[in-house]
Design goal:
The protein has 20 helices and 16 strands. Strands 1, 2, 3, 4, 5, 6, 7 and 8 form an eight-stranded mixed β-sheet that branches. Strands 9, 10, 11, 12, 13, 14, 15 and 16 form an eight-stranded mixed β-sheet that branches. α5 links the parallel β4 and β5. α4 runs parallel beside α5.
């Protein structure tokens, strides 16, 4: 009798467990389908992956752990028939990239067009909180129509919670956004607050108000691409840092970027085994600088010559191209590179280039990434548009960023370093640790032509012939436009042969690896935004 009762009980337990397992399988299948096969097919037809497909493509194989998979919206107003979906339109969790922990969320466009509601926002907030606690990067894969209108002010409150966490995480963990579809309204503010924005060309869009509203409010006919496509944000607005051909390319770029970054601000960037000799000479650099000071050359050639394996990751390559910002390595150590580009606007600093470089320097400083600066700058860009646009205010951001940064700072002047722009590009007295100059360097308040017009104004009036001016320019150039006077005064630490540049940087980075610099205690500075 006891045996039969026990057997019956076991059967009941087994049957109950089977029902639970079946229920769990059913719920998993339903959650994995998102908004259903029809909407998944429509997503694929647009050339887009689903949220889970994107996560699987980005993270290490089988490393993703999903959380809040079965979360449901508490609102009965969703959709025309009160429909509900497990996950509520966003997939959240954690996994690894190259074995390093990351946290992630991915909008599911098949559910209410990826629109954000209360539960949707709560899920993102939870994973962002976890990323802060764990000290690991947070990645958002965005494909959203914005706030869920059916949930009213609750969706706006959820957005505000996310924005607050973006601010808390800023400078603590790397924040990365991938724009893989249309992102409108509130869906674009959070990505704009993150450190790096990746956009897929001809698929990703970002705008505050969509084409329909623009047409209705302003009478302007504009397409999604014209209003907020990848090209617009990569070349004009500066919102996008990277443009990808497709989603696979986007994920590859994200993985490469993360390889240069620490997981949080209390760590140093990851070291890699160096495959390039630290003493490799760069003889091609000895003859790179043209004899004529107004003739351009490609600063990217200099960067390629000196970094490990000639490999660097340029950031915002199509916006403000007169300045180059990039990640690279020297002897396996991550660095941030800032360099004037003589091929664009003669390398002069303008509003956009100042903003671009300043934000990059502040990111590097937040995450213990040394800053290497290559200088060839004739000055700040003159003109009515620049002055009225606030070049004084924007240009001072670059000065602020260099002066504020306490990471190792190494500056190499390759040619021109004139006026206030010299001060702004990591000069000795904005507290760069080591300043080197090539023999071709020219450090001065201004170029010889402008200086002679001021210094010899009266003489030029009485000696209008060109020979007098040419002689004055020659004398000024010989006396002032060389690095040796600056070296005599300690403004330049050393004049080096261009071929030695890589080796000198490697040695300097080793010397400064334990750099410590104390600054006044304060809540935060007030950068001239």
């Amino acid at each position: 009798m006891e045996k039969n009762d026990s057997g019956t009980m076991d059967n009941e337990v087994s049957s109950g467990m089977t029902r639970i397992v079946d229920q769990l399988n059913t719920m998993n299948e339903s959650a994995n389908l998102g908004g259903g096969k029809t909407r998944i097919d429509a997503q694929h037809h647009r050339g887009k992956k689903t949220a889970r497909e994107r996560i699987d493509a980005l993270l290490d194989r089988d490393s993703f752990v999903e959380i809040d998979k079965f979360a449901l919206s508490g609102s009965e107003e969703n959709g025309k028939s009160g429909e509900k979906y497990y996950g509520d339109g966003v997939v959240t969790g954690y996994g690894t990239i190259d074995g390093r922990a990351v946290f992630i969320f991915a909008h599911d466009f098949t559910v209410f067009g990826g629109s954000l509601g209360e539960v949707f926002g709560r899920k993102i907030n939870k994973v962002m909180d976890l990323s802060m606690k764990a000290g690991a990067p947070i990645i958002g894969l965005c494909d959203s129509g914005g706030a869920r209108i059916q949930e009213g002010v609750q969706s706006l409150a959820a957005y505000s919670e996310i924005f607050f966490r973006n601010t808390l995480a800023s400078g603590v963990i790397p924040q990365i956004s991938g724009i893989l579809g249309p992102c409108a309204g509130g869906a674009v503010y959070s990505p704009a607050m993150t450190d790096f924005v990746f956009m897929v060309d001809r698929i990703g869009n970002m705008f505050i108000t969509g084409p329909d509203i623009v047409r209705e409010a302003l009478g302007q006919d504009v397409t999604f691409e014209q209003l907020g496509g990848a090209e617009v944000h990569a070349t004009k607005s500066g919102v996008a840092h990277f443009v990808s051909e497709n989603e696979e390319d986007c994920f590859s770029q994200i993985r490469k970027l993360l390889s240069f970054l620490p997981s949080n601000n209390s760590e140093f960037p990851p070291m890699v085994d160096a495959t390039d000799s630290p003493t490799r000479a760069n003889h091609v650099l000895d003859t790179l600088i043209p004899h004529e000071s107004d003739k351009p050359y490609d600063m990217k050639s200099v960067i390629s010559e000196i970094v490990d394996d000639h490999d660097f990751l340029e950031v915002q390559s199509d916006w403000a191209p007169n300045i180059i910002i990039a990640f690279a390595r020297f002897d396996g150590k991550s660095v941030g590179l800032v360099a004037n580009q003589p091929m664009q606007l003669a390398g002069a600093l303008d509003i956009d280039s100042s903003n671009k470089a300043a934000r990059f320097i502040r990111f590097c400083d937040s995450f213990n990434i040394p800053v290497i600066t290559l200088v060839d700058v004739p000055g700040y860009m003159p003109g009515v548009d620049q002055e009225s646009g606030g070049i004084i205010r924007h240009g001072s951001k670059l000065l602020y960023a260099y002066c504020e940064a306490t990471v190792p700072k190494i500056t190499i002047i390759t040619r021109k370093a004139y006026g206030g722009a010299y001060c702004a590009m990591g000069s000795k007295y904005s507290k760069a640790d080591l300043n080197f100059a090539w023999p071709s360097a020219q450090l001065a308040v201004m170029g010889p032509e402008g200086a002679v017009k001021i210094l010899y104004r009266r003489e030029l009036e009485t000696h209008p012939d060109q020979s007098f001016k040419d002689k004055a320019v020659e004398e000024y150039t010989e006396k002032f436009l060389n690095p040796f006077i600056a070296a005599e005064r300690g403004i330049i630490d050393s004049v080096i042969f261009p071929r030695e540049t890589r080796y000198q940087i490697v040695r300097a980075l080793s010397l400064l690896s334990d750099k410590s610099e104390q600054r006044p205690t304060k809540k935060h500075g007030n950068i001239p935004l």
